[in-house]
């Protein structure tokens, strides 16, 4: 009965969904492309070159980046891949990461439809995937039920479930048990994730690790970042993946404490998590009286030069995070200074940069705690403390170097999740 109520709610929400697509497309044009796909209409012709693809679902930007090593490993095996998303940033990142494979016809992108029975049924009938690999958290009741009816094995890979999300899921315990119990494999990031997933209904979850540790970082971007920092002649603090509700405090901290103890003004590189907020954050920095430069205004240059008087460089670009991390003396991974769960610090540690996180890292609690225990990261109670910790690190070259080495050792010690996922689902790949 609960699944019926859930499905009815989706159907009643259809007019709102159409309005939402239109409204978001006004701010994010990419959100409005191929809107019929969101309801399971993909055109009449099936693409023969994608017969029986391995379907990988990466809902948004972070999951798309996390899926990169898995998708590359599948492509290396000569398998066709269907990559689906729900957000415009995820789809844009997938197009950037796999541009060559899309052009060669080895990978196709599409929207995953809303979780309505007819839409997901049309999805399965159109693409005929040999299996589905859902990245991190994307489990939908009708999608899973339809997968079983169509004989498509489904795995939740690099799976995570925070304690807060587990508590919310228990409110619909019967629906959760049916949905998570309907998955053919649950491959968790950590033992804590596996235990929580088992509690809400997953059958025999196994720990395989986090795919993000297997990221293949573009070495040309890392080298460019290192070279840029040397040319800049100033220390750099990156505020990465900032979220709404955090930037005002970050900009206030930068304005109030513009110099390290050595008297050198660091450059604060602020990189908002969501592209649709780039203009808003730039306006906030200007309103705070800070000298701001934007990456986008220097698009004709390999990377922004940052004039000596610039206090804030707005990282309003996609796909350049390895550059920003490599260019930084210290990286403060945001999304963790408001109760949002934090962002993953793995990419930062893989770039060998000392990391600071805020108090709210429940979405990535194990990775954060392990990085802190490895002395690759520090935790701050709030934005002001994070800025003070960053300034202290700028004045302590020996400690900074020790954290750099610890960060590289930490990220290197946790690789191998991709191989373990492929071993677990190998029987479906043919």
End-to-end gap: 37 Å
Number of strands: 14
Overall spatial form:
globular
List the total number of helices: 19
The poorly predicted ranges are none
Please identify the oligomeric state: single chain
Radius of gyration: 22 Å
Sheet with most strands: strand arrangement: 3-2-1-4-5-6-7
Rounded mean pLDDT is 91
Counting helices, strands and paired strands, the structural category is alpha/beta
Give the DSSP E fraction (strand runs of 2 or more residues). 5-15%
Helix content: 40-55%
> Biggest sheet: strands, sense, closure?
7 strands, parallel
Describe the model:
It is a single chain. This protein is α/β, with parallel strands linked by helices and 430 residues long. The chain has helices spanning 2-12, 14-27, 61-76, 88-97, 99-103, 117-127, 141-149, 163-169, 173-181, 191-199, 219-232, 247-256, 278-287, 321-327, 346-350, 365-373, 383-394, 397-413, 417-429, and strands spanning 54-57, 81-85, 107-111, 131-135, 154-159, 185-188, 206-207, 236-242, 267-272, 292-294, 312-314, 330-333, 355-357, 377-379. The strands form two sheets. The chain has a seven-stranded parallel sheet, sandwiched between helices. A seven-stranded parallel sheet has the order 10-11-9-8-12-13-14, sandwiched between helices. It is globular, with a radius of gyration of 22 Å. The chain starts with a helix and ends with a helix. The mean pLDDT is 91.
């Amino acid at each position: 009965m609960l699944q019926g109520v859930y499905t009815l709610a989706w159907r009643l929400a259809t007019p709102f969904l159409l309005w939402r697509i239109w409204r978001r497309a006004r701010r994010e044009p990419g959100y409005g492309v191929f809107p019929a796909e969101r309801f399971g209409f993909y055109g009449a012709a099936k693409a023969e070159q994608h017969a029986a693809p391995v379907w990988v679902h990466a809902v948004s930007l972070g999951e798309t980046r996390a899926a990169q090593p898995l998708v590359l490993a599948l492509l290396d095996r000569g398998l066709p891949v269907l990559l689906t998303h729900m957000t415009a940033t995820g789809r844009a990142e997938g197009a950037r990461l796999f541009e060559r494979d899309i052009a060669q016809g080895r990978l196709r992108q599409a929207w995953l439809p809303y979780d309505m029975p007819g839409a997901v049924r049309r999805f399965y009938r159109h693409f005929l995937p040999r299996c589905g690999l859902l990245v991190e958290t994307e489990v939908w009741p009708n999608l899973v039920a339809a997968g079983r009816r169509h004989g498509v094995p489904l795995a939740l890979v690099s799976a995570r479930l925070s304690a807060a999300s587990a508590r919310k899921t228990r409110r619909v315990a019967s629906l959760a048990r049916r949905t998570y119990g309907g998955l053919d494999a649950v491959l968790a990031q950590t033992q804590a994730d596996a235990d929580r997933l088992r509690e809400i209904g997953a059958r025999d979850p196994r720990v395989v690790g986090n795919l993000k540790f297997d990221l293949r970082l573009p070495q040309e971007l890392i080298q460019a970042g290192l070279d840029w920092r040397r040319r800049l002649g100033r220390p750099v603090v990156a505020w990465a993946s900032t979220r709404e509700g955090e930037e005002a405090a970050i900009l206030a901290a930068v304005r109030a404490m513009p110099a390290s103890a050595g008297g050198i003004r660091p450059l604060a590189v602020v990189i908002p998590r969501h592209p649709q907020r780039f203009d808003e954050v730039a306006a906030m920095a200007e309103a705070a009286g800070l000298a701001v430069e934007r990456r986008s205004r220097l698009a004709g240059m390999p990377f922004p030069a940052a004039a000596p008087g610039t206090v804030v460089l707005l990282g309003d670009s996609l796909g350049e995070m390895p550059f920003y991390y490599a260019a930084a003396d210290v990286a403060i991974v945001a999304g963790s200074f408001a109760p949002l769960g934090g962002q993953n610090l793995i990419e930062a540690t893989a770039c060998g940069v000392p990391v600071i996180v805020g108090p709210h890292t429940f979405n990535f609690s194990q990775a954060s705690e392990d990085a802190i225990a490895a002395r690759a990261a520090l935790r701050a109670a709030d934005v002001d403390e994070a800025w003070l910790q960053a300034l202290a690190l700028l004045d302590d070259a020996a400690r900074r170097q020790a954290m750099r080495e610890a960060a590289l050792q930490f990220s290197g010690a946790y690789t191998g999740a991709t191989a373990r996922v492929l071993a677990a689902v190998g029987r479906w790949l043919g």
